[in-house]
Write a structure and sequence with these properties.
By secondary structure, this protein is mainly α. It has helices at 45-69, 76-84, 88-100, 104-108, 119-125, 129-138, 162-168, 191-217, 238-244, 248-256, and strands spanning 19-25, 31-37, 111-112, 117-118, 141-143, 146-148. It has a two-stranded antiparallel sheet. The longest helix is centred in the last third of the chain and has 27 residues, at 191-217.
């Protein structure tokens, strides 16, 4: 005899959220926010499942970020990635520990010797002007009767300075939206998301401009040239990198400071 079938218990589902924010992160460290308004009613089953997965991913991502903030920064590479990703709380805790030990400049100027990565470079690359200002101030030392930061003109293994990092780091959309769907061309995006992209781009460019101002005020040298290599046959300055990357707002800002090459 075949056993009698029994109905399965319903799988618990996450309650619908009237307004959902899913936060992703592009390569540039710019937060990409897609807002879905309304409840799940009226959507096809596949759409409902995709939105539900996005909700759960957002909750998991938020929990992960709070856990990351509590992790100590142990070396220059971890400081670089924390600054590039804009982990302000984690960086502040790291610098506070250095202050308690009387080694604030040492903690702010941690360097990865192999890749020649620093927190100042990471903050500039991610266009996180708040972190950049803190690191430059905390890492400054007395030299020639004034306070200077030795990492402002520090070059990575390709010869890039933090100023070059800002100049060459143009806006790039991620390959996928936070819900997992491929990111289409601008013309195919819904108007609300297209407007969100435009706002994110404007905010990113404003932060880049603030980073350039901060670096120039800290005596960043715009005449330094990058190193040549297999993928870089020519030496390039920050101004040229900005022009080739389509960063016209950076080009204009550098020219306003009298930088012409």
């Amino acid at each position: 005899l075949r056993p009698r079938a029994t109905p399965l218990s319903p799988v618990p589902r996450a309650p619908p959220i009237p307004e959902l924010e899913v936060v992703g992160r592009a390569e540039t460290g710019v937060a990409l926010r897609v807002v879905r308004r309304g409840r799940h009613t009226g959507r096809q089953p596949a759409q409902q499942e995709r939105v539900r997965r996005a909700e759960l991913s957002f909750v998991a991502m938020s929990a992960a970020e709070s856990e990351i903030d509590s992790l100590p920064i142990r070396d220059g590479k971890e400081l670089y990635f924390a600054c590039r990703q804009g982990q302000l709380t984690r960086v502040r805790k790291h610098l506070a520990r250095g202050g308690q030990e009387g080694r604030a400049p040492e903690f702010a100027n941690l360097t990865d010797a192999n890749a020649r990565l620093t927190g100042v470079f990471g903050a500039a690359l991610g266009a996180h002007s708040d972190i950049l200002s803190i690191l430059i101030t905390m890492g400054s030392i007395e030299s020639g009767g004034r306070r200077v930061n030795p990492l402002v003109n520090y070059q990575d293994r390709y010869g890039y300075t933090p100023l070059m990092a800002v100049a060459s780091n143009g806006w790039r959309k991620p390959e996928q939206l936070p819900d997992g769907s491929p990111c289409p061309e601008d013309a195919q995006l819904p108007p609300a998301i297209r407007q969100e992209f435009a706002q994110q781009l404007q905010q990113h460019q404003q932060r880049q401009a603030q980073c350039v101002q901060t670096l120039l005020q800290a005596n960043a040298d715009p005449a330094i040239r990058s190193l040549t290599g297999p993928y870089a046959p020519e030496e390039k300055t920050a101004l040229r990198l900005a022009a080739e990357s389509g960063q016209q707002h950076i080009v204009q800002l550098l020219q306003q400071h009298g930088i012409q090459q």
